[in-house]
Amino acid sequence: MSTSSAPKIDLHTHSRVSDGTDTPTELIAAAVEAGLSTIALTDHDTTRGWDEAQQAADAAGLDILLGTEVSTRLEGHSIHMLAFGAPAKGALAEIYERTRESREGRMKAMAEKLAEDFPITYEDVLSHCGPGATLGRPHLADALVAAGCFPDRTAAFNGPLRPDSPYYVGHWAPSPVEAIEAIRSVGGVPVVAHALSKTRDFSPNPEQLEEMFSYGMAGMECYHRDHSAAAQDWILKFCEKHGRFVTGGSDYHGTGKPNRLGENVTDPQVLVEIRRMITAESL
Predict the structure, then answer these.
(1) What sequence ranges are listed for the domain Polymerase/histidinol phosphatase N-terminal (predicted)?
(2) Per the domain annotation, does 44 fall within a domain?
(3) CATH of the domain at 190
(4) What b/e string do you get for 120-156 counting C-beta neighbours within 10 Å, with b at 16 or more?
(5) Tens-binned pLDDT, residue by residue, of the chain (283 aa)
(6) Is residue 206 part of a domain?
(7) Over 81-150, what HEC string results?
């Protein structure tokens, strides 16, 4: 759902608490300016922006759905899982802690490798992160851009930050099934993000997606700028076949990506279903 006269519901955004460039408060202000009726905050592997975002949304009169984007790995490849209404408790909190620690070690290792050929240091990378932010390759990209090595994040990602680059270092992440079980255990609603992205070198196959459904994955993000029209059509038919819903979101990162708030949105009835599924434990 890319355009609609219905309420504009964007269920995939990031703040400076992970790899966006807006604070949660600035993100809410931008959402109001963009004419959104509902926004989901889905920072990577953290809920640290929830309180600020909720307070800002309440003050602005904007409906908000709190969530995260959980890093997972399948056959050595990155798969992201949106987790709506899932507080950092129990197994999910342990996953976040382990992932964030691994991301920090990975960031140091990549910065050291890059420093051999580019004029950046690990401290330069940290200067582009918000306090307590989940560290990611976008912060490395920002340091490279600031050093004049690349014009923007995209160029850096297409260069030394590519997964097949000699500078690349991976980080630990749970399997999609482990993440789904942890999200469900705290009453959250798991939805796989941009699974058929044309910018990634791997997509889960139908059997792998069906296994995720069998463990409680509630739906798939369909409307995303990295999904071709053919990919969106496939996701719609696949989810309809399996009785699952689809979502849409901008994957907004502030100035870090060209993605604009509200460029892809979610059907209002899907939002109603997500909130129905969120159990009392996570409210």
Answers:
(1) 9-74
(2) yes
(3) 3.20.20.140
(4) bebebbbebbbeebbbbbbbbbbbbbeeebbebbeeb
(5) 544 467 999 999 999 999 999 999 999 999 999 999 999 999 999 999 999 999 999 999 999 999 999 999 999 999 999 999 999 999 999 999 999 999 999 999 999 999 999 999 999 999 999 888 999 999 999 999 999 999 999 999 999 999 999 999 999 999 999 999 999 999 999 999 999 999 888 999 999 999 999 999 999 999 999 999 999 999 999 999 999 999 999 999 999 899 999 999 999 999 999 999 996 444 4
(6) yes
(7) EEEECCCCCHHHHHHHHHHHHHHHHHHHHHHHHHHCCCCCCHHHHHCCCCCCCCCCHHHHHHHHHHCCCC
Instruction: Calculate the alpha carbon distances from 204 to 48, 81, 189 in Å.
Output: 29, 12, 19
Tokens 């993605």 label which residue?
259
Model pTM? Answer: 0.93
Position 133 in a domain: no
The structural domain count of the chain equals 1
Distance CA 69, CA 162 (A): 20
